[in-house]
């Protein structure tokens, strides 16, 4: 790992770190204010396949977090920025609610496929259309590859199986853009104008938040809220730079030791 | 490469793939590939044993054969080795009651199978029935089983219809494998057991048999692994890159079935 440099940016996970479902983590709003008084850039990073930045922002503001839209970086943002870099016109297999994050992107006569969680699109006709684009050389960009998720009526297939289906049929590999992919963190930091050695990530997911950030060269702080389960910090190597009770404790540590 | 005479020496039996070799299918009825109707007829008039070996799982054998006869092919149901009947035999032998994720047109093949209280999933080329809901149902059945069993009718990546390339069952099989963290049991090409059953039906040993297909991996690679020879036709799903496939090299590449039959009738042992 490269030598640490003065801290310039703090990346913060949303769900499970700032809030758990519809309740803020106690003291999180106040801690965020304190963090903002320090000379660091703050970015909010999250894996989402269906919530646009506007949706996320609405929820956070309701919980009285002081956050602006351009500080949010999601797996959808990462997909968009990859689409822009590659200068391609994507067929968007994403939930309709995610479409605002792709506003302004040219999607007619597509020559790329972006795939998120979109049950209404995951059927024979549409998948066949995506398949034919890929056979013609279009790149496949996956928001993430989760196997399944929990719904009220039981387990339901995530995007991963459908990404795998297209990968197998076309003998290609998707570029996965969400956490814990390195590119996700690097893109978020590029947006913040710094390098991994100048940044720290705070999150409740040992593998996706902390492990991913640390592989990208950042420091990772694991908070024991949200999806955290006992001994999660032992599930990654190297272990988290720090494991602490919650977001306010993480902020306290940063203010006292990393600046 | 050796001369055709050498490559085809000793051939006594021929396995023919159907889709992409005999005809290109579509929603209507399909179109015979130029010269294939006559080629099948010539082959059947010859001394060579002929068996049709298909991974078709969108239609029952009866429907498939009916369609091919309409197109002018000399073929009957008893001459066809197909995955659905082979799967039924496995289901009966192992006392499995399947949840069926298959095309309506092939359902009749499973008429004699108990599908109550399923303890496995059978997936075929379900076509339009590959909805999210149906995939999810199959997934949920598998996840509820203590030891999930997934039987796949072939594992093809894609095939060609007149309108273009179509996703085959393989992708959907992989989707369920990935979601459940399991491996499917494949009934159909390239499974060696499937080729062997086709050869048993015509009483020919693998070294004396040749497979003719448009799928470099499923047809050619699969047959060769069983000890057969195999030709790839440049019809159906054939793509030019197939002739430089990193793992599979056919015993010969021919423009179509008609050319393959010409060569066989000229060079296979009399």
UniProtKB/TrEMBL annotation, chain A:
Its cofactor is Mg(2+). Keywords: Hydrolase, Magnesium, Metal-binding. It comes from the Eukaryota. It holds the Pfam family Hydrolase_like. The keyword Lipid biosynthesis does not apply. The keyword Translocase does not apply. GO terms for molecular function: enzyme binding; metal ion binding; phosphatase activity. InterPro entries: HAD-like_sf (IPR036412), HAD-SF_hydro_IIA (IPR006357), HAD_sf (IPR023214), LHPP/HDHD2 (IPR006355). GO terms for cellular component: cytoplasm. Belongs to the HAD-like hydrolase superfamily. This is Haloacid dehalogenase-like hydrolase domain-containing protein 2. The lineage of its organism: Eukaryota, Metazoa, Chordata, Craniata, Vertebrata. The gene is HDHD2.
TrEMBL record, chain B:
InterPro entries: HAD-like_sf (IPR036412), HAD-SF_hydro_IIA (IPR006357), HAD_sf (IPR023214), LHPP/HDHD2 (IPR006355). It comes from the Eukaryota. It catalyses: diphosphate + H2O = 2 phosphate + H(+). One of its GO terms (biological process) is phosphate-containing compound metabolic process. Belongs to the HAD-like hydrolase superfamily. Phosphatase that hydrolyzes imidodiphosphate, 3-phosphohistidine and 6-phospholysine. Has broad substrate specificity and can also hydrolyze inorganic diphosphate, but with lower efficiency. This is Phospholysine phosphohistidine inorganic pyrophosphate phosphatase. It comes from Carlito syrichta (Philippine tarsier). The lineage of its organism: Eukaryota, Metazoa, Chordata, Craniata, Vertebrata.
């Amino acid at each position: 790992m490269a030598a640490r440099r003065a801290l310039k940016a703090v990346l913060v996970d949303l769900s499970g770190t700032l809030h758990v479902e519809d309740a803020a983590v106690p003291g999180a709003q106040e801690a965020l204010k304190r963090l903002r008084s320090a000379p660091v850039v703050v970015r909010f990073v999250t894996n989402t396949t269906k919530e646009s930045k506007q949706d996320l922002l609405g929820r956070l503001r309701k919980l009285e977090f002081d956050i602006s839209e351009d500080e949010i970086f999601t797996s959808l943002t990462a997909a968009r920025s990859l689409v822009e870099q590659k200068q391609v016109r994507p067929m968007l297999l994403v939930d309709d609610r995610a479409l605002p994050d792709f506003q302004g992107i040219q999607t007619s006569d597509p020559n790329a496929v972006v795939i998120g969680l979109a049950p209404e699109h995951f059927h024979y006709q549409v998948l066949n259309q995506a398949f034919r684009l890929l056979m013609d050389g279009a790149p496949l960009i996956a928001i993430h590859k989760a196997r399944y998720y929990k719904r009220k009526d039981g387990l339901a297939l995530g995007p991963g199986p459908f990404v795998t289906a297209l990968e197998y049929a076309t003998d290609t590999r998707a570029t996965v853009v969400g956490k814990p992919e390195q590119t996700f963190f690097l893109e978020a930091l590029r947006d913040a104008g710094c390098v991994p050695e100048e940044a720290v990530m705070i999150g409740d997911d040992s593998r996706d938040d902390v492990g991913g950030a640390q592989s990208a060269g950042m420091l990772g702080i694991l908070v024991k809220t949200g999806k955290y389960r006992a001994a999660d910090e032992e599930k990654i190597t190297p272990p988290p730079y720090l494991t602490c009770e919650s977001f306010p404790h993480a902020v306290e540590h940063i203010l006292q030791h990393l600046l | 490469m050796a001369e055709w005479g050498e490559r085809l020496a000793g051939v006594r039996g021929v396995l023919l793939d159907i889709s992409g070799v005999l005809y290109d299918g579509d929603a209507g009825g399909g179109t015979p590939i130029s010269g294939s109707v006559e080629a099948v007829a010539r082959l059947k008039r010859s001394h060579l044993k002929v068996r049709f070996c298909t991974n078709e799982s969108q239609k029952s054998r009866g429907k498939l054969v009916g369609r091919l006869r309409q197109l002018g092919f000399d073929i009957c149901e008893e001459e066809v080795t197909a995955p659905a009947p082979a799967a039924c035999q496995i289901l009966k032998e192992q006392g499995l009651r399947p949840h069926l994720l298959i095309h309506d047109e092939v359902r009749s093949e499973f008429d004699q199978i108990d599908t109550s209280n399923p303890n496995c999933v059978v997936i075929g080329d379900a076509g339009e029935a590959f909805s999210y809901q149906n995939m999810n149902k199959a997934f949920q059945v598998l996840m509820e089983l203590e030891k999930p069993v997934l039987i796949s009718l072939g594992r093809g990546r894609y095939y060609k219809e007149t309108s273009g390339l179509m996703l085959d069952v393989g992708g959907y099989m992989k989707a369920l494998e990935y979601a459940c963290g399991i491996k499917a049991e494949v009934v159909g090409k390239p499974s060696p057991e499937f080729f062997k059953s086709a050869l048993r039906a015509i009483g020919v040993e693998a070294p004396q048999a040749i497979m003719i297909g448009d799928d470099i991996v499923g047809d050619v690679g699969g047959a060769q692994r069983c000890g057969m020879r195999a030709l790839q036709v440049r019809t159906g799903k054939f793509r030019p890159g197939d002739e430089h496939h990193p793992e599979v090299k056919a015993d010969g590449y021919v423009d179509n079935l008609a050319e393959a039959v010409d060569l066989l009738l000229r060079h296979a042992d009399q």
